[in-house]
Amino acid sequence: MTDVNHWIAGDRVAGERRIDVFNPASGEAIRRVALGDAATVERAIAAAREAQPTWRDLPPAKRAQVMFRFKMLLERDADEICQLVAEEHGKVLEDAMGELKRGIENVEYACGVAELLKGEYSHNAGPGIDTWSNHQPLGIVAGITPFNFPAMVPLWMYPMAIACGNAFILKPSEQVPSATIKMAELLDEAGLPRGLFNVVHGDREAVEALIDAPDVRALSFVGSTPVAKAIYRRGAENGKRVQALGGAKNHAVVLPDADLDNAASTLIGAAFGSAGERCMAISVAVCVGHDTADALVGKLADEARTLKIGPGTERGLDMGALVNAAHRDKVAGYIEQGAAAGAELVVDGRTHPLVEESKGYFLGASLFDRVTPEMGIYRDEIFGPVLCVVRVDTFEEAIALINAHQYGNGTCVFTRDGEAARRFADAIEVGMVGINVPLPVPVAFHSFGGWKESLFGDLHAYGPDAVRFYTRRKAVSQRWPERSAQERAQFSFPS
Ligand code: NAD
């Protein structure tokens, strides 16, 4: 069994505490990852402190060249990265490649950093006075990322933070540490000076050391809502800039005029892709009218029963295992709870043969019909392969239902009616909206973020908001008085 160590200034640093990393498809421990403490975090900060001033002073176009080489290397080694993701997370290889491609988009966007940092300029803002504002890096910034996108979510953060002139410390999920270390090696090969990208593995101890370290100026967090809230609060108390993205419960509204074949097959992918372990997974289908619901549930059930499930590292599958045994059991517990609460369990993923036959953490796809808003399976984020159908009578009822939910990450509407689609996009209290697009994850040149309990902070992740998040503005006013002019003291406010 190999060890996964911290990465500090290009050195692999071992730790005293370690935990096993599992392959969810076999249930076997395959690696051991180091868990960092305050001393590990301090060592990463010292490396960052030393490297950042020289990096900050490089022209942005030179910093972008490193990102350009990094992008080429990510593409060269994409298969290897996806293998690590599939092995430790359990998702299927094609899905891992999808997340990596979306991650690489962010590196491409960071290659344009010279343009993005250009700032604003006013000639003759006052008599003989020119004013400009520019963006300057914060110094040392940190990211804390979840298990479910081992490649993509870290790539939302550090390429832009580093391209803006910062040093970055990443605390990836301890359940999926290896893809991050592979990408650290590629940044090194791309020529990034050492100390600008450091990885401290670990759990709460490492995270709290990062939040409490005065030299860490900003924190980007992606994970569950309770942890997002706690980090946002403690980071703010420590005077840091914080963006903390949390959990989700994403609804798809299906109107009676929708193309139901298309809605059903795209919903199946959006609900069960990555075994539902996506913050943008659709976990509720809101059907307007009983005829719509009857027709849709029939189609969904047929597709859910025939999903190809198996080890993520095998090709041609739809869905892999869940990330760990405790999470699989928690999801199975929700299926039990939903049935006991009176929802109609149309397809029961617990009966899939792999649940019995395999030592991996498998569950088949589950489909509930006639779910109601007070049920736990509706209120809570399950984060597994469970799709709930809620029946409503009107479109307005569907909008009100979604707006009353605690989460507001993503949503979508299936319809052929432009007026209804426009009303939905305007009225819905959710940060990312799809119109016949079930997973409306914005491309890298737009920013990503939910509303309500799905995001704490002002700025969203990646895209233009990332440039704002990882820099601070400075406004400079300059005047070059004529040498002969006699300046007199001015006591009134300059106007
Ligand atoms: P998690 O909150 O358990 O862990 C996220 C990170 O925080 C990990 O690095 C973990 O080590 C660390 N952590 C865990 N507990 C902590 C604590 N008490 N104090 C400090 N740090 C702690 O989340 P997860 O299970 O890894 O990921 C799944 C969750 O992430 C889901 O809720 C999902 O919706 C959410 N998520 C949200 C988005 C988004 O963009 N909104 C994207 C991906 C995942």
From TrEMBL:
Q: What is its EC number?
A: 1.2.1.27
The domain of life for this entry's organism is Bacteria
The protein's enzyme class: oxidoreductase
Ranges where the Aldehyde dehydrogenase domain occurs: 17-476
Gene Ontology terms for molecular function: methylmalonate-semialdehyde dehydrogenase (acylating, NAD) activity
Could you list this entry's UniProt keywords, alphabetically sorted: NAD, Oxidoreductase
Q: Does the keyword NAD apply?
A: yes
Concerning Pfam families, the annotation shows: Aldedh
Q: Which InterPro entries match?
A: Ald_DH/histidinol_DH (IPR016161), Ald_DH_C (IPR016163), Ald_DH_CS_CYS (IPR016160), Ald_DH_N (IPR016162), Aldehyde_DH_dom (IPR015590), MeMal-semiAld_DH (IPR010061)
Q: Which SUPFAM superfamilies match?
A: ALDH-like
Q: Name one GO biological process term.
A: thymine catabolic process
Q: NCBIfam families from the xrefs?
A: MMSDH (TIGR01722)
Q: Which PANTHER family match?
A: MALONATE-SEMIALDEHYDE DEHYDROGENASE
Q: Know the name of this protein? A: methylmalonate-semialdehyde dehydrogenase (CoA acylating)
From which source organism is this entry? Halomonas urmiana
